[in-house]
Write the structure tokens for this entry.
Amino acid sequence: MNGSRSMLRLATAALRQGSSLPGSAGKGAYCKTEFLVRGYAADADAYDKMPDSGKKPDSGEIVVEIPVKFNLHLLESGPPQEAITTKEELMKSYTDMSVIRRAEISADMLFKSQMIRGFCHLYDGQEAVAVGMERALTFDDSVITAYRDHGIFLGRGGTALELFSELMGKKTGCALGKGGSMHLYHRKHNFWGGWGIVGSVPPLGAGLAFAHKYMKKPNVVVAIYGDGAGNQGQLYEAQNLAALWNLPLILLIENNHFGMGTAEWRASKKVTHYDRVPYIPGIKADGMDMFSVREAFKYCKEHCLAGKGPIMLEADTYRYHGHSMSDPGSTYRSRKEIQGMRQERDPIERIRKIILTEELVTKEELKDLDKKIRAEVEDAAAKAREEPFPSDDELFANIYKADSGLVAYGCDRRKTKVEMP
Amino acid sequence: MLGVFRHQANGARLIVSKFLGQGKGGCSVRRPFVHASPLSRGMADVAVVADKMNVRDALNSALDEELTRDPLVYVMGEEVGQYQGAYKITKGLLEKYGIERVRDTPITEMGFTGIGVGSAFYGLKPVVEFMSINFAMQAIDHVINSAAKMLYMSGGKISVPIVFRGPNGAAAGVGAQHSQCFAAWYGSCPGLKVLMPYDAEEARGLLKAAIRDPDPCIFLENELLYGVEYPMSAASKDKDFTLPIGQAKIMREGKDVTIVTFSRQVEIALKAADILAKDGISAEIINLRSIRPLDRPCINNSVRKTSRLVTLEEGWPQHGVGCEIIATICDESFFYLDAPPERICGADVPMPYAVNLEALAVPTMDDIIRIVKRCCHRGRAAA
């Protein structure tokens, strides 16, 4: 059964139930979204039982079932419904996701104590997407995303110190403190940001893919956007060009079902994304299951590197926080839904269960690991607080790459006039 | 146009527009409001005009009154309806006017701006909200090519009574892509009217004027002023209160130097003028209110009186609003000047995020005082 169609049916039923008239802003009209907890699992019961795993005692490999079926568009066959993993991968993934989770919790606190200013869009809940993606890529592949970029940055090998420094505007930040939360970059690991304008990423990603192909690199580009950006015209333009020019582009849709405060069925005539383009194949994966994301990415990377052109990958995921720190996230979603997601589909819990069921480490060892991760992240935040701000002459640095002879002015033209050597 | 009045269970009055048909989207709800949700406290959320109002409530009251007055007016934008507005400017409007007239849109600026302009060709009067005027760049083709130029291109046959509005310029720590001031870019475009209110009364009067105006207006607000309260005059409470478009206001009379500014810098300039007065410099502060059309007579008359000019803005210096002000003085009042005009602008950089760098990128009161003094002590001595 197509999970998204059943969700749509539930959504329409909920809407009809909640309000008899358009214009009614009754909570029922759009907050009857508890079904999101279950509606996406093709088999709702799959989430009640532990993911089935068969341990092969000799090889040290663990087989993990991926309960939610992949939805395919224009593809004869898709990724396998099971993933082969090892203890190392499980522990690393658990650690990576926990680091992201703790970093976002710390960022929340730093924002509330005004150490972080402006906008702050948190990624907790979506860790499986960032980490599952990295399990299938290398740092020679390129990733570009929008403003919900903290988790992606950490997944790309950015350190927590660089992250917190940038969030607080310190000179040890990955953009020297001049970018902020929405503008994180890691050139060495091919992480291209960090963008503030909804919809701008797909064309930029297609451009990166164009360059990769032009320079004959055996790598893919992942351009990440959300369901809110799914209706942007420039996305369609980028899709057309990527398909026309056969670019090695994976368009990843982090579908957390809300574009700021607007639920997907209020913004889109068609709520799924992976199957929107009649000439670009797509896969829909369970974005709360790291292995589902991993297998889907492996498949997509193979597809692109075989020269088959772009592919869409929709990850059904969820953000626990609101859109940003100025949005409580509970005026357009019920707390029951958010709690339900945490209990039933939390990505870190999922891996924890596998680790404990397979008895890879003891419960105490895992608790110690949790403590260690928390301490490391909080230390990074504390260290970042002590770092200095960028110096005043940074104001005029890097306006241009070739700036010899450039004259730049401050607010007082006669007092602050800077000439580049 | 206005038909039935219905009394709600909570005693509030719901006006049903006969024009849009009863019950089918013209009115919000037939059943009484029973929700505890903050989203559906209904008409209590729409701002009421009072002796003191903040800019947010002033804008809200203006939208409310214009929606009531003219059934062809409608509001469109991201999160304007159910979310009550990203900055709460449109709170309560969905509950009062229904989804036909308060339309939530997907995040597709180019698309919904084009739709707004097209509907204006046919006679509707949209108020298109951009969550930030920075996002209006996605739609700028429709603002300029479709709206501003239309009346001229059609030989006067098709007008575009549309208002674009949203917060413009720097806020606090929102970074390079969310801090640009667009006054100069839009101000150079013939066919467009560009308004920039400062306090709550201006916000209310100018927005009402813009909605009633038959030409495309872009209404540039300031996010940092939304929550600031200002006193409202008795006249401003009238539901037909409007301010004239194209007229500046002399906020403070003076005789030594003219400071021309707009939006948030008006407040900072007024404070600077108090400090300057203690040093014996009497500064005249002009609040432009309207970037286009520019009130050239007001600026010129003032400089002819004071003989010195300082322009003040937060946007980028090159080709900024200050340049046009200085040019107009050179055109018409050059020989009245006793000193070269000074421009105070934002720094010539994309807005940095770090708090210390951001402070260097926007004019401060110290900058204003230093520059005004410098202007007053150069050139020929004041008579």
Q: What stands out?
A: The radius of gyration of chain A is 22 Å. Confidence is low (pLDDT under 50) at residues 1-50 of chain A. Residues 87-112 of chain A form the longest helix (26 residues). Chain A touches chain B through 58 residues (CB under 8 Å).
